[in-house]
Amino acid sequence: VKRSLLSGRIYFTCLLVGQGPTAKKLLSDLKKNYAYLGYQCIGYLSTNEHSIASGDIPAVWLGTINDVEIIIQEHNIEKIILAPEKRDVHLLESLVQKISGKEVDIKLAPQLIDIITGAVKTNNVLGAPLMDVQSNPLSGTERHIKRSIDVLAAITALILLSPLLLFIWVRTAL
């Protein structure tokens, strides 16, 4: 897998959300470390409804955050990387709610002050530090498997503990 990732045969299609200096630096870091991370950024969405493509970002402008659900489907996006500026932070909650039902990983570029103070933990050593946003921790199949294991464990516990429960019931009834 590592060889396939390094050679570029395996990659993750990513969508960048943001158009400011944070997004520009993040895109630069992702491209610089593409071979190690395997993130292929197909384009970006602007956070402002009225904005158009920014010449500052060296990527394809795909629209605004209002179009995120359509773009995820059309381009088979696997990862969404949020790179908001301070003025756009209020948009994150509604955006995460929009895409939480989709089968995409959400990553967030933390602010520098959060990293320095230790307020956030990142999981990337190479390139841009990214935090995972847990929108839907288990897929449908994983939820069914977990539910089956939970039911099986409960039935097993009842069977194994039934002599003790029967003894307690008899002792309290008499």
Structure write-up:
By secondary structure, the protein is of the alpha/beta class. It has 7 helices and 6 strands. It has helices at residues 2-7, 21-32, 34-37, 68-75, 92-99, 112-117, 140-173; strands at residues 12-17, 39-46, 61-64, 79-82, 105-108, 131-133. It has a 6-stranded mixed beta sheet with strand order 3-2-1-4-5-6, sandwiched between helices. α5 links the parallel β4 (79-82) and β5. The radius of gyration is 23 Å and the shape is elongated.
Compute the average pLDDT: 76
Can you tell me the residue ranges where pLDDT is under 50 for at least 5 consecutive residues?
none
| Derived structural class | alpha/beta
Q: Numbering strands along the chain, what is their spatial order in the largest sheet?
A: 3-2-1-4-5-6
Order of helices and strands: HEHHEEHEHEHEH
What percentage of amino acids are in beta strands?
15-25%
Main pleated sheet: 6 strands, mixed
Percent of residues in helical segments? 40-55%
- SS field, number of helical segments: 7
- What is the overall shape? elongated
Radius of gyration: 23 Å
